[in-house]
Specification:
heterodimer, A: MetI-like fold, flat, B: mainly alpha, MetI-like fold, 13 helices, 67% helix, globular
């Protein structure tokens, strides 16, 4: 038993110094936990600054949203309890919210999976290239995601006058006679925003895939070839994917989270509110009520709904991915 | 049974690769590469175009008479601004430097404790941190505003810096990297030699995870560098470089040239930082995987 404690505590210097190790069965669970906590004081000390900030600016705000969503808080008056009134208003009385829900889900359902598979495929395709060429190609694909405001170049490419590249091209070829108002046209706003979002989406997940592919042991492929794998696609399915499952999982989480975070891109490209609410997402609705109208209670309900959608998507996809190659 | 001739690339045997597949992949990469690269190239081209080329019909992709006038315009616009432009630059540099340094210090201490020490609550804390990767921070913007006003941090640098110090992505990457690349035996022998836990962390573990540092720094740097107009800041003299650039961008037709130059300036910094550290980042990402 004492031996087990020693093994279970590789991170403690104290275990070495104590003269007589105490077995776990000698005390109650609470006593044991307390003892372990005292012995690991340093660990708590090291984690404390981060944890404090994390609690204050991530955990507490989430919990606070949940509480405030049940009230009519507006920053000025003392909040009153409203029960689920905000939620019923949201789903039954707010048509724009339903549009926002639809847009958000369409946006995420396209950008999430497409960006994910694009990252995975490109990472896989460049995996066998010589390192220097691979580094250059990685940079080309990754650069748009780190370059901040550069996506505004799409506004120039698709500007609504004839100096924009898209309009210039179409006018010149005679396909159209008057310039198209790309980002002010309800028919084009959504697809264009999705394209731009995809353009900026090869981020951390992409790098994780590249690295994951690099760490796969080559002997696995050789063994696979001996066992009758005939082409690269079979190899990908039977050897590569199961081996890099942890990266697939990490990438999926990032892609999903990212696919719900393109609100700023949309606002920058088509303004707020977008024409006919054609690109209005839940993020915009939240900003509208929280940041402009100060209906904090109602905005909190929106935030909670968005939070639940994101978490559900992530947990469902994680479940699905854990089945890859099993 | 027939033996296929082995294909090689630079003397290395290539298994199971058809030429048709290679061609298909090259084609796909070219198309996608063009989609990714051409807009970036166009941004650079635009910044080098004189005004008459910017407003030309039909628009041309490549610049004919490249010059740096737009950059000169940008700098003269900067020197005309109401708040001295150096102030915007200082703000961005200050926020980025302090936020990144704090994130690096706090996250690596926490990562070490989570990766290399066993204490009650460790798994719960890590699970919550992983969960925080699963939702986008926009969810919190409204309540965070309330938190900030409660702490009297509205319209101070801290409203931007403190949340950035608790970004979980860097912590997550560093913890995973420590687990895979810092052997327990090395730490154990340091402890046997009488080194305190903090000393072991600082002298032994930290130098071993340098690639993870760089990755964390870049993750944090990129977010903070791109901080634009923030709901927490309304004093002009506390606003960031990115915000000032956005104002120039919003300046309409007359400023198109300067705006194109500004875009290039904004993108060059993060790209340069990434290029310098690319190999370290990819190394860190090798252990980024998530267990079920």
């Amino acid at each position: 038993m004492a031996n087990k404690i020693e093994q279970g505590t590789p991170g403690s210097g104290a275990a070495v110094k104590t003269a007589r190790p105490v077995a776990r069965k000698d005390m109650t669970r609470a006593q044991w936990v307390w003892k372990e906590m005292k012995r690991n004081k340093v660990a708590y000390l090291m984690i404390a600054p981060f944890l404090l900030l994390f609690l204050l600016f991530t955990v507490v705000p989430v919990l606070l949203s949940m509480v405030l969503s049940l009230t009519d808080f507006n920053m000025l008056q003392f909040p009153h309890w409203q029960g689920l009134k905000n939620y019923s208003r949201l789903f039954l009385g707010d048509e724009i919210f339903l549009i926002a829900c639809k847009n958000t889900l369409v946006f995420a359902a396209i950008t999430g999976p497409v960006s994910y598979f694009m990252s995975l495929l490109i990472a896989w395709f460049i995996n066998e290239l010589p390192p220097k060429i691979r580094a250059v190609i990685t940079l080309i694909f990754y650069a748009p995601s780190i370059s901040g405001q550069v996506y505004l170049i799409w506004q120039t490419l698709f500007s609504s006058d004839s100096y924009g590249w898209a309009n210039g091209f179409l006018l010149n070829m005679g396909f159209i006679t008057t310039p198209i108002l790309w980002f002010q046209d309800a028919d084009y706003v959504m697809p264009l925003c999705i394209i731009v979002a995809l353009w900026t989406s090869l981020g951390t997940a992409f790098l994780a895939f590249i690295a994951g592919l690099q760490t796969i042991d080559r002997s696995l492929y050789e063994a696979g070839a001996v066992d009758g794998i005939r082409n690269r696609w079979q190899e990908f399915w039977y050897v590569t994917l199961p081996t890099m499952r942890p990266q697939l999982m990490f990438g999926a989480v990032l892609s999903i989270t990212q696919s719900f975070g393109f609100g700023a891109v949309v606002t920058a490209l088509c303004g707020f509110p977008s024409v006919d609410y054609a690109a209005h997402t839940i993020m915009h609705h939240l900003d509208d009520y929280g940041g402009q109208r100060y209906e904090i209670g109602y905005a909190s309900a929106i935030a909670v709904v968005l939070f639940i959608i994101m978490l559900t998507c992530n947990l469902v996809v994680k479940k699905l991915l854990s089945k890859v190659g099993q | 049974m027939k033996y296929k001739k082995l294909r090689t690339r630079g003397h290395k045997v290539v298994l199971n690769r058809s030429k048709g597949g290679d061609a298909g992949i090259a084609f796909f990469l070219t198309i996608m590469g063009a989609f990714m690269f051409l807009p970036m190239l166009y941004a650079v081209m635009q910044s080098l175009k004189p005004l008459d080329e910017l407003f030309m019909f039909p628009p041309r992709f490549f610049v004919r008479k490249p010059n740096l006038e737009n950059f000169a315009d940008l700098f003269s616009l900067m020197s005309d601004s109401w708040v001295p432009f150096s102030r915007y630059i200082f703000n961005t540099v200050f926020i980025t430097a302090v936020g990144t340094a704090g994130n690096l210090l706090f996250a690596s201490m926490a990562a070490y404790a989570l990766a290399k020490m066993r204490f009650p609550g460790r798994n719960v804390i890590f699970k919550i941190i992983v969960m925080s990767l699963m939702f986008h921070q926009t969810v919190n913007q409204v309540t965070n505003f309330i938190m900030m006003s409660a702490f009297r941090m509205i319209d101070t640098y801290w409203a931007i810096i403190l949340p950035a110090m608790a970004t979980t992505m860097g912590l997550y990457l560093m913890k995973q990297f420590m687990e895979s690349s810092v052997p327990d035996t090395v730490l154990e022998s340091a402890r046997l030699d009488g080194a305190s836990e903090i000393r072991t962390f600082w002298v032994i573990a930290m130098p071993m995870v340098k690639p993870a540092w760089m990755t964390l720094i870049i993750e944090c740097f990129r977010t903070l560098w791109n901080t634009g107009s923030s709901i927490y800041i309304y004093s002009e003299q506390l606003k960031t470089f990115n915000y000032a650039i956005q104002q120039i961008l919003a300046g309409g037709v007359a400023r198109s040239g300067a705006a194109a130059a500004a875009t290039v300036v904004m993108m060059l910094v993060p790209i340069t930082v990434f290029v310098v550290n690319q190999s370290k980042i990819v190394e860190t990402m090798g252990s980024s995987g998530m267990k079920d």
